[in-house]
Design brief:
The structure holds two protein chains of two kinds.
Chain A lengths: L1 H12 L4 H46 L4 H4 L8 E7 L6 H9 L6 E8 L5 H9 L2 E3 L12 E6 L6 E6 L3 H12 L4 E5 L4 E2 L3 H11 L6 E8 L4 E3 L2 E4 L6 H23 L10 E5 H6 L10 H15 L7 E10 L5 H21 L10 H16 L1 H17 L5 H29 L6 H35 L15 H4 L1
Parallel strand pairs in A: 1-2, 1-6, 2-5, 8-12
Antiparallel strand pairs in A: 3-4, 4-5, 6-11, 7-12, 8-11, 9-10
Chain B lengths: L2 H52 L6 E4 L2 E4 L2 E5 L5 H15 L4 H13 L2 H8 L5 H14 L5 H10 L3 H14 L4 H8 L5 H14 L4 H7 L5 H14 L6 H6 L5 H14 L5 H6 L6 H14 L5 H15 L4 H14 L1 H13 L3 H28 L1
Helix pairs in contact in B: 1-2, 2-3, 4-5, 5-7, 6-7, 7-8, 7-9, 8-9, 9-11, 10-11, 11-13, 13-15, 15-17, 16-17, 17-18, 17-19, 18-19
The chains are: A alpha/beta, B mainly alpha.
Chain lengths: 492, 382
Amino acid sequence: MTATIFGLLPLLVADEAPIHLLLRKIILGFNDVVFFYVIFVDAVYFVFTLFALSEVRTYLRSRDKERLEQIFRSRLVPPISILCPAYNEGATIVESVRSLLRLKYSKHEVVVINDGSKDDTLKYLVDAFGMERLEFTFENSVKSKPVRGLYASPRYPKLIVVDKENGGKADALNAGINASRYPLFCTVDADALLEEDALLHVVKPMLDRTKFVPVTGGIIRAANGCRVVKGRVESVGLPRKPIEIFQIVEYMRAFLCGRTAQSALNVMLIVSGAFGLFHKATAKIVGGYSTDTVGEDKELVVKIVRYLKEQKREYEVLFVPQTVCWTEVPATWQTLGRQRNRWHRGMFEVLLKHKDIFFNRTYGRVGWFGMPYFLFIEALGPIVELSGYILLPLAALLGLLAPLNAFLYTMCAVVFGIILSVSSVLLEEASFHRYPRWKELLTLNFYAVIENFGYRQLTLWWRLRGTIDWIRGQKQWGAQQRQGFGSPAKAA
Amino acid sequence: MSLDLVALELVLSSLGIALGSLVSFMMTMRMYREWRAAVHVQVRESMTGALGKILDTDRSFSMQDRSVLVDGEQVYVVPKPRGPVGDAVREFLVDHLSFISGDLRGRLVTILESAGYVAAAMRQLRSPLGENRLKACMILGGMHSRIAIPALIEIFNDDPDAMVRITAAEALGVVGAEPAVAHLLQALRDPTRFQQVRVAEVLARMGMMAVPALTAAVDDDDVRMSALALDILADIGWMSDFDPAIRALTHASPEVRARAAEALGRAGAIEATEAVMKAAADPAWFVRVRVMKALEALGAPRERSQRARYLGTLEQGLHDGVWWVRQHAAEALVKVGEDGRRLLARAMIEAPDSPARRASVSALQHHLIASAAKTAKTAIAR
């Protein structure tokens, strides 16, 4: 695109021929579009931040008074099946399962789905937990690849292992849905570390609302830099690599501000694949996870919301502003780029698959705000914003715009971005206060400021690449290298 | 200078000011938090020293206004119930209250009462803000002071906020006030599951005190109410007056029938075995599941003819149309002992319908794994 624009340069500098006037108009017109777009997006994010502030405040107030742990020892709360798909996770699987078995809840089971791993994932599990192969009978209510065997252990009655042929994460989760026994299921990545009281917090909205709550999610944080002992985050700390700290601030912004606000407006359409709690019967009705997309986690929520809207049922998809899950975020630029590329492709796939929701009266708020938000702000954002970065200075250079004005305008946009980032750090400090040292607070603030110079643009670039790859029709996941949890020194 | 430029500059500078205030607000908040934490640590240190003397059973204890006297000697002056210091003192005492019982608990409650902490919380009950009233109810519940009972009952009856009312009932239950049972049962009619669970948990903790009212509630017209009452009774593990629960086995609602079977099983009501066995012919599958589970929990009767009927019921369950019922029937049979397992083995070989065979296989397999593990464990122990 840049090349084309520079190709136009001589034309523009020349005298005022009609064609030049037209081109000038196009550039100026586009500038206007970018101008209003940025203002609009900032306004939306600002409103989100305000909603998040009030939501987190109310949440924290009620939380202190609930004695959740005592209450959830009661048998009156619905039991939960935890689905944990594992593909070549031999190195960490035993530790992860142990931490899942240890969760605080009155009744839960852990269903590990070995998705045709090429390493010894299954063998590790069988050895560590004394699992035995069983005759199995369960209903195949959602489609999945053939199951090779079902394993249980007398010593760990809460644990079930499903061994199946490889079919991808969505397929593994479907097999898990079939094999699970309880009315609610919770999906957990094999490499995610859950807080011990995670289930208590995410199940609560399903019980304390008068409306039906089919899906809930919670905050996911980057575990990089934390001290992890026996599958549990012992002490929270910041990693040394800037790329990881950027992501910590980014996750704060996305989860603490973004998702909380979307939940308050009841337009939430994303529940992270790393941790989400679902009402099983509803998930089954919509056919479980789709195997033909890389954004299967988003897609399931959209399907459920869509189904409930079509049935004209009152519902709420809720997000709990409480940390439930820690996950290792990519520590190299390359893997991070690939991850963002995949997320973005997934988003486009979901949007295209459900394009009839847009501005459709049946779907109410989701059709008029939820989906358009994802299309115009999340999905198309990179295209508009990046072209703005090119066109605004260009227009100023060509004398179409006063350079000082252009500079000041850009500064306004950047400072506003900084305010949003800093607000999310402030929200974190006021609410959960997970980073107790002064140095950490200052570092987070520093990164909240500088992420607007470079990192933000880089993620935009990756997302743009994702858009291009989606148009070209790529489907593969892109491998992610894991460095494994260990001492923070190892990460550094 | 153009108007645009002025406007932009204005916007930019106000954004800058906003950013600056955000950051300074954050820093102030952090400093306040650290100061509060320091206060808490100080209070805890100073109180821990005195607590040993206060809780010494050999020495007499009395209060004079805010000073604590042990054997007539002043050991501690309780700070006024105000500000962060007051909060820290209250939290410290309430924390200890939860794991101290009897006479010693009385001493801590006396401290809270005569130093004015209970009175302060009761003043908060009259706050116009629902949030404050709710907090006060929680605090009063934690302080276990019986002085507050009338005020809490008043709140339960008159407060406009439903959450506050339920919290008041909960506080009454925690304090252990007899009249609370009726209020809690009323609060159990709340529309959300979460509040019901909260209240049910308090009732279950009240134990035997709540049993008469709960057994009466089993006969309630509201189906949800009788189901919940049965659930709570099962949690308490009540020991007499099973009649309402036995009657509930023939209730019109399958939900209630299922709960009744489960409650009787969990309470170990052996005298109800006959009635539970009759319920095995229930039309609703989930009732039959609970019946099988209950029979497993109740165990096989000793008396010969009854035992035969018991085994017959389970064998029928083995041929049930629903997988879940078969599975539980098979599991119950494993637990019966030798004759149960023989029955299973026979079903495994002879059963004409393959599902019954499969349930038997799976149950026996589980049993074999378990007994193998047990043998291995004893071998290791030797």
